[in-house]
């Protein structure tokens, strides 16, 4: 029984880790898009 609890715990942690990777990647893309928008606005204002 202890072995099955460890297996379920390990699978749960792996699932959470994979979900966190997708979330972090999405946040990175959002931040990058925001930075590009700010850069574009600054370049337009400089002209």
UniProtKB/TrEMBL annotation:
Coiled coil: none annotated. Keywords: Cell membrane, Lipoprotein, Membrane, Palmitate, Signal. Residues 1-25 form the signal peptide. One of its GO terms (cellular component) is membrane. It holds the Pfam family Entericidin. The keyword Cell cycle does not apply. The keyword Nucleus does not apply. Transmembrane segments: none annotated. GO terms for biological process: response to toxic substance. InterPro entries: Entericidin. Belongs to the EcnA/EcnB lipoprotein family. This is Entericidin A/B family lipoprotein. It comes from Pontivivens ytuae. The lineage of its organism: Bacteria, Pseudomonadati, Pseudomonadota, Alphaproteobacteria, Rhodobacterales.
């Amino acid at each position: 029984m202890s072995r099955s609890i460890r297996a379920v715990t390990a699978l749960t942690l792996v699932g959470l880790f994979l979900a966190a990777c997708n979330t972090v990647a999405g946040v990175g893309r959002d931040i990058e898009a925001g930075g590009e928008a700010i850069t574009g606005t600054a370049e337009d204002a400089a002209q």
